[in-house]
Amino acid sequence: MKVKLVTTSPFYGKIYAYNSNVSCEETYGSGNLETHFSIAIGGNDDNCKAVEESIDSFSAIIVVQHHPLVQQQGDRRLKLTCNFQVTNQTVSSAFNAVVE
User: What is the chain's Cα-based Rg?
Assistant: First the structure.
C-alpha cells in the first residue's frame, strides 16, 4: 500500500504505521511538498503490515507527525483502506514437447 502525502509547505516530519514496532519502516520528510510512504499488505510481521478487513479489503492506520521527534496536537492518525475486486481466473499456456 503506497501513500503520497502532499503538503502546502515543506514537510520535515515523519510518517509511520500506528501500533508498529521499531523495526517497521518509517519515512522522514526532507522538506519536499510530496512525501512517500509504503506499508506491506503481506509479510511475516503482523505489526508492520496492513490488516485484512475482508477478502477484497485491507486497511492500515498511519500517523502523520509534523515534527520528526515530538508528537504535537496537530499530528494526525489516519485509517487507510485499499479495496480491490477479487475474481477467479484460469491461466493456461500451450507448449510442444518432443519425446525421443
Answer: 19
